[in-house]
UniProtKB/TrEMBL annotation:
Protein name as it appears in the record: MULE transposase domain-containing protein
Amino acid sequence: LYSDADPTLISAIKTNYPETHHFHCIFHIDLNLKKNLKGKLRNQFELFRAKFLEMRNSLCHKTFKIKWNTLIDEFSACEQYLTRALYPCKSSWACYICYQSEFHSGNSKYTMGRVY
């Protein structure tokens, strides 16, 4: 199930559908990146965004972690937002988690058809 990460909806899903894995919509994450980081990064924002999406699209944890650390090192102005707002909920937006969840659920056809 995908949503815009609304806290009320997240709570309702956990309560009413405890077996359902809730994912955060990348469109809404992207909107929040623009809202919170574009002013800080200015002309570096598009480069940051491309590297963020590349990191997010990693299909294994080790690659994700390396790219996450590189992103933090390269764009230190973003560290607080990324570590406070996004890292704690990475299990809801990182592709390596999404891929593993669908792989283990037996829904690999759906995984193969998804645009990451």
